[in-house]
Amino acid sequence: MWDALIITPFVNVLLFIYNLVGQNFGLAIILFTLLIRLITHPLMVKQIKGAKAMQELQKNEKWLKIQEKYKNDREKLAQEQMALYRELGINPFASCLPTLIQFPIIIGLYQSLIIALASTPIELLNLIRHIYPALLKVEALIPLNSQFLWMDLGLPERLVLPFLPVGIPVLAVVVTVTTYLQGKLMTPPSANPKDQSAMFSNMMNLYMPFLMGYLALTLASGLALYFVVSNLIGILQYALLGQLNWQNILPKRASEKPSKAGAKK
Amino acid sequence: MKRRSKIFWFVNVVLIALLLGGCAGTLASSSWPGVTVVEETAYVAYGNHVYALRVSDGSMLWRFPEKAEGQRLFFAAPAIADGHLVVGDYLAVLHSLDPQTGQEQWTFTGAQGRWIASPLVLDSRIYAPNADHHLYALDLQGNLLWKFKASKALWSQPVSDGRRIYQASMDHFLYALDPSTGQKIWARDLGGAVIYSPVLSDEGIIYISTLARNVLAIRAEDGSIIWQKAFENNFWSQPLLQGDRLYLGDLGGKVYAISAQDGTVVWENNLGEPLTGAPTWLDGEVVFTTENGKVVAYSEDGNQKWKVTLEGKLYNGPVVANSHLLVGIAQGKVLVQALTAGGQQAWAFEPPK
Fold this sequence. Notes:
The structure holds two protein chains of two kinds.
Chain A: H1 2-20, H2 25-39, H3 41-59, H4 61-69, H5 74-88, H6 96-116, H7 121-130, H8 138-141, E1 147-148, E2 151-152, H9 170-186, H10 196-218, H11 221-240, H12 256-264
Antiparallel strand pairs in A: 1-2
Chain B: H1 2-23, E1 34-38, E2 41-46, E3 49-54, E4 60-64, E5 79-81, E6 84-88, E7 94-97, E8 104-108, E9 120-122, E10 125-129, E11 134-139, E12 144-149, E13 159-160, E14 165-168, E15 173-177, E16 184-189, E17 199-200, E18 205-209, E19 214-219, E20 225-230, E21 240-242, E22 245-249, E23 254-259, E24 265-270, E25 280-282, E26 285-289, E27 294-299, E28 304-309, E29 319-321, E30 324-328, E31 336-339, E32 345-349
Antiparallel strand pairs in B: 1-2, 2-3, 3-4, 5-6, 6-7, 7-8, 9-10, 10-11, 11-12, 13-14, 14-15, 15-16, 17-18, 18-19, 19-20, 21-22, 22-23, 23-24, 25-26, 26-27, 27-28, 29-30, 30-31, 31-32
């Protein structure tokens, strides 16, 4: 079911693009990722708007008073919260529902890339099975041209320079840096840095770049390329929506420091 | 509390990473067992080890390496040459082992890609195709004599008539090479990738199947096409030449007996499951294996004689050893199943942990 509805169509679209761009698999990965992110862009906009509304609610005076008033009565607090949602026209699921819809699409995209990057016999057999014969000709497609710049997209990437004894994992470094930047730029400023969601964001921003970098180091470079493209598109989407939080990566101005220090007290 | 929370989120991130890494699959299940039989010993390459088994009862004589080494995986059927068992791994290393003890004698590390196909041994030389697009010619000490570059990966074992080497490639071409220099004599575009080896007749005709749904007969002398026949499905199979017929199966699940003279279909049968590898001839019967574990024997005139189902995936054809059929099984508990000519189970080899 999952295969027929998501994976197989994705694989065929990816390979169709690959054919369209002169059998350049790297370019096909970039365009395919862009296409999927464009399709899911409206969902992302809804998700951001929903998240922003929820975030603004945290600063809402009425909500702060309700929290204080019913801090010992969870049931009443929930009732009041729902009433406030209605009053302010906030849909509590506005941010998580688009995420839930996007999630299988992103996972499908990732899995279809893995299938298309076949570099061993069983992987190639599996890829052949996913191709629609009416749309694409196996004989013209196989073997896929997995060469892109200096990389074989089916293998982990290393840039080999004649004067160095070991290859440099350029993509792994780029994945680490772009994941870090994406995490930092897309994390909204938190009203209370000690709340659960802020802590979650901080932890993700700390560990995720290294883990993604490790995956890029060990997995096929086609997937690492996807990670980079996906990160850059994510940043671009947020930039277009005016949601990038530059304060997270730019050095703090002197005038901001005392007030933050004051806030801590 | 803060420390606990940090651990909680760290575990979450690790789980996400494992999920992403897990989706990418493991190399351990990326191919199937390669089986070679030499007299009383069967050599089996699969996963982290190469095994030497006694053909009579399936007992293990040795395995190499004794301890598994991470990404060092063996799938290509080993080749034997004057006291050398030659086998390549997925870390681009070609090993020469002592066939009696499994001790490593030398390694060749000059290739860049995986050793997916078996080497060919001819006149004290080793001709080893690699996924890095090169066919490497080595002497029996592992010294490089020459290398020939195709434009795509080489996944099939070369064949030879003693005068020339014939190497099929994923780049859609069949190459005829001079075995002493590696010079190309001719190249023939087959219209589709060739994954499995061709078969060469005593009359100098090469029979080959392609992913372009074709079976071709090619004159070894000059590479000219004698006949080619289009079929319904892609082939990932080495034809079996027996008498004046070719037997092979396709990825759509059909088995065929076709005339070696002109490619006309003599009989066909639909097994409904993909067939890869090469069928085998034993006691007047042609034996096919299917992906989902079926071993099926047909008489010469296309009547099904017997069928057994084994647990696991069968991507490679059976190998004949002492009137038995040895079937290499991928993704199963048993690695090698020995069957009698009638399909009765003789012995099974389960690799030790």
